[in-house]
């Protein structure tokens, strides 16, 4: 997973909520920005200082209402 993250400019995490923090830890370690559509969990909040120290943007709650999937669809990204 770490190699995959290092090969990309941003991580868009659309996995179940309990999996976001482990993925965010990898993104922070790789200094790769991360976006997810889930509400900010205590586990994600606990990574705030680590992300700031690494200079990595971690954006949570990115579009549940109306939804990332709706925005992507409007932009032609999803059928």
Helix amount: 40-55%
- How many helices? The count is 5
Cα distance spanning the termini: 27 Å
Tell me, what's the shape?
globular
What share of residues are in beta strands? 5-15%
Assembly context of the chains: single chain
Strand order of the largest sheet: 1-2-3
What low-confidence regions span 5 or more consecutive residues with pLDDT below 50? none
- Give the strand tally: 3
- In N-to-C order, the SSE pattern is HEHEHHEH
Biggest sheet descriptor? 3 strands, parallel
Overall pLDDT metric: 84
Class computed from helices, strands and strand pairing: mainly alpha
Could you tell me the radius of gyration in angstroms?
13 Å
Can you describe what's shown?
- It is built from five helices and three strands; from the N terminus they run H-E-H-E-H-H-E-H.
- Helix content is 43%, strand content 10%.
- The protein has 79 residues and is mainly alpha-helical.
- A three-stranded parallel sheet has the order 1-2-3, with helices on one face.
- The mean pLDDT is 84.
- Strand 1, helix 2 (20-30) and strand 2 form a beta-alpha-beta unit.
List the topology elements.
Layout: H1 2-6, E1 11-13, H2 20-30, E2 34-36, H3 42-45, H4 48-54, E3 58-59, H5 68-74
